[in-house]
Amino acid sequence: MATYSGGLTGAAQPPTDLASPADLASSADLASPAVRTRRLVRGFGERAVLKGIDLDLAPGEFTALLGRSGSGKSTLLRAVARLDHGVEGTGELVVPDRVSLSFQDSRLLPWLRVLDNVVLGLRGPGVRERGLTALEEVGLAGRDRSWPHELSGGEQQRAALARALVHDPELLLADEPFGALDALTRIRMHGLLRELYERHRPAVLLVTHDVDEAVELADRVLVLEDGLISLDITVDLPTPRSRRDPRFQEYRDALLAALGVTTPSAPPYASPKEKSRVPHA
């Protein structure tokens, strides 16, 4: 685990009342979080984006993060990914040492073959074998010598997942990884991601705008509103999940209401700042 300040700038230096690194490490060992934030603040100029986020993600927990545009989802993800150097902010942030990222764009390097993209950055014996195993896991066995442009959009995302998981991450951060795919390909990718998660069991933080995707994939769903977590729901449904399940619809309605979208079966959400749990049927 690593305590991370984010390379913060300007007047927003880490406050003096934060625990020491030794205290944070001891606290992290006791609670064993995959991610821990306390009073996490991030902003750009005079605009505060994250306004004091307190969050624990357990090892092996699959969490989805929803929120309207501008709510701070990407800012939170970049902070956890340790990619917000130079951003103004304060707070405590503890993250694992091994973190992998997956984006909406596969970000495969066009001048490298698929296998070379997957194992990029790996060193030591057995690298090629690890890469081939990862490609087989995502259904791309035999495509190791292909160029990225020879793959379909869905295949490129599969290669990107292989690249993320070949590093055996403790935490996988996924920023709308299926947003650019067609509907049928997204359905297939949902099943693949959940299968890979069950096999490797990293902690996952998935940023998405798709409420159905969040309920289908995640075991916990957070709603970010105005820089704070307004809703925290545990999704207690067996996998694979069916959107025809009445309880799936209950979770969906609760999340839509928290996002300000009312449906015939979901009244307007009354307490956006209160942590909530959907009652089990």
Write structural notes for this entry.
With 281 residues, the chain is an alpha/beta fold. It is built from eight helices and ten strands. The strands form two sheets. Strands 6-7-8-4-9-10 form a six-stranded mixed β-sheet, sandwiched between helices. It has a four-stranded antiparallel β-sheet with strand order 1-5-2-3, sandwiched between helices. Strand 9 (220-225) and strand 10 form a beta hairpin. Helix 4 packs across helix 5 and helix 5 packs parallel to helix 6 (183-200). The protein is globular, with a radius of gyration of 19 Å.
Keywords:
281 residues, alpha/beta, four-stranded antiparallel β-sheet, disordered C terminus
Question: Topology, pairings included?
Answer:
Blueprint: E1 2-3, H1 21-31, E2 35-44, E3 47-57, E4 62-67, H2 73-80, E5 88-95, E6 99-103, H3 114-118, H4 127-137, H5 153-165, E7 171-175, H6 183-200, E8 203-207, H7 211-217, E9 220-225, E10 228-234, H8 246-258
Parallel strand pairs: 4-8, 4-9, 6-7, 7-8
Antiparallel strand pairs: 1-5, 2-3, 2-5, 9-10
Helix pairs in contact: 4-5, 5-6, 7-8
Lateral strand order in the biggest sheet: 6-7-8-4-9-10
Helix share bin: 25-40%
Helix-strand pattern, N to C? EHEEEHEEHHHEHEHEEH
Question: What is the 3D form?
Answer: globular
Low-confidence stretches: 5-30, 268-281
- Average predicted confidence as pLDDT: 84
Radius of gyration: 19 Å
* Structural category: alpha/beta
Distance from N terminus to C terminus (CA atoms, Å) equals 38 Å
